[in-house]
Design brief:
The protein is α/β, with parallel strands linked by helices and 292 residues long. Among the domains are: 105 residues, Alpha-Beta Complex (Conserved hypothetical protein from pyrococcus furiosus pfu- 392566-001, ParB domain); 52 residues, no CATH class. It contains 14 helices and 8 strands. A 5-stranded mixed sheet has the order 1-5-3-4-2. It has a 3-stranded antiparallel sheet with strand order 6-7-8, covered by helices on one side. Helix 3 packs across helix 4, helix 5 packs antiparallel against helix 6 and helix 6 crosses helix 8. It is rod-shaped and about 110 Å long.
Length: 292
C-alpha cells in the first residue's frame, strides 16, 4: 500500500500493521466485509439523531492539531444514503476536527442501518464514551426508551450501566428547568441533583437549589437540608396554657417558703410541671428538708 494512498495517519499505522490493513475498494465491499473505506468529508451529512448539543471549540482545535500530526486513530462510523452520500452515525468530533485539519478524506466504517438503528447507535456510543453532561445522558436514555421501545433492563444490557444508575439519570428530567440548567453548567453536581430529586415538590427543590448556589453547600449539607424538609423535627403535642389565678397563689406561696424562684407549667390535658430553682448546695439541702 503506498504511503500517501490514504490518510489513516501515523497513529493508526502504529497500531495496525500495513500488511494486515487494506481499505475496501468499494462501499459495497466495506458494508459486506465490515472493513474501512475512505470517504470524502464533504459527502458526509451530520447525524440528525446526535444527542450531544455542545462541542468545546478549544478541544476541537486541539484534536484537529493532533490529527494533522498523527492522522485519524479511530475511524468514524457512517451509513450509506445513496451512491455518493453518507450520514454520520458516530464520530462527529473527529469529523469536525478532520475538516479543521484540512483532511479531504476520512476512514470510516460503513453500516447498513435504518433510522431507529441510527438513533440507537448514536445514543449508545455517546453514553459509553461518557462525554455528555448528565442532562444529555438522561435525555439520551429517555429517547432510547421512547423511540426505540427499550426498557430500563434493555438499556442496562446495551450500555453496560446498572439499572439504578439509569433510573437516577431519568429522575433528573423531572427536576425544574432551573435545576437542570445548573447541572448542565456545572453549578451543581450530579450528587446535588440526585439529592434534590428525592424532594417530592418543585417549590422545595428550587428552595434548596438556590440555597446550594448562595451558600456553596456540599452534597452532604444538601442532604441534611433535604432531610430536614422530608422529616421535620417532632414537636410536642402538649400545649402550654396560661396559669389560672388560683394556681398562681400556690406558686407565690412556694416561692416564699423556699426563698427561690418557682415555675409552674400546665398542659391542656391537666398535667404539668413544678420547677423549683436552686443556685447552691445549701439551698438544695434546705428545699429537700422542707419537702421531707
Amino acid at each position: 500500500m503506498a504511503k500517501n494512498e490514504n490518510r489513516l495517519g501515523k497513529g493508526l499505522g502504529a497500531l495496525i500493521p500495513e500488511s494486515s490493513y487494506t481499505p475496501a475498494k468499494t462501499i459495497e465491499e466495506a458494508i459486506k466485509t465490515g472493513n474501512i473505506a475512505e470517504i470524502d468529508v464533504n459527502k458526509i451529512d451530520t447525524n440528525p439523531f446526535q444527542p450531544r448539543s455542545q462541542f468545546d471549540e478549544q478541544a476541537l482545535l486541539e484534536l484537529a492539531e493532533s490529527i494533522r500530526q498523527l492522522g485519524i486513530i479511530q475511524p468514524i462510523t457512517v451509513r450509506l444514503l445513496n451512491k455518493d452520500k453518507f450520514q454520520l452515525i458516530s464520530g462527529e468530533r473527529r469529523l469536525r476536527a478532520s475538516k479543521l485539519a484540512g483532511l479531504e478524506k476520512i476512514p470510516a466504517f460503513v453500516r447498513d442501518a435504518n433510522d431507529q438503528e441510527m438513533l440507537e447507535f448514536a445514543l449508545v456510543e455517546n453514553i459509553q464514551r461518557e462525554n455528555l453532561n448528565p442532562i444529555e445522558i438522561a435525555i439520551s436514555y429517555q429517547r432510547l426508551m421512547d423511540e426505540c421501545s427499550l426498557t430500563q433492563e434493555n438499556l442496562s444490557e446495551r450500555t453496560g450501566k446498572g439499572r439504578s444508575s439509569i433510573a437516577n439519570y431519568l429522575r433528573l428530567l423531572k427536576l425544574p428547568p432551573e435545576v437542570q440548567a445548573g447541572l448542565r453548567s456545572t453549578k451543581i453536581t450530579m450528587g446535588h441533583a440526585k439529592v434534590l430529586s428525592s424532594l417530592p415538590d418543585r417549590h422545595n427543590q428550587l428552595k434548596v437549589f438556590y440555597k446550594i448556589l448562595a451558600a456553596g453547600l456540599s452534597v452532604k449539607k444538601t442532604k441534611e437540608a433535604v432531610d430536614a424538609i422530608i422529616n421535620p423535627p417532632l414537636r410536642s403535642t402538649k400545649k402550654e396554657i396560661e396559669i389560672p389565678e388560683e394556681i398562681s397563689i400556690y406558686k407565690t406561696d412556694i416561692e416564699e417558703k423556699f426563698s427561690t424562684k418557682v415555675d409552674i407549667k400546665l398542659s391542656g390535658d391537666g398535667s404539668g410541671k413544678l420547677i423549683i430553682d436552686f443556685n447552691n448546695s445549701e439551698l438544695l439541702e434546705k428545699i429537700v428538708n422542707l419537702l421531707s
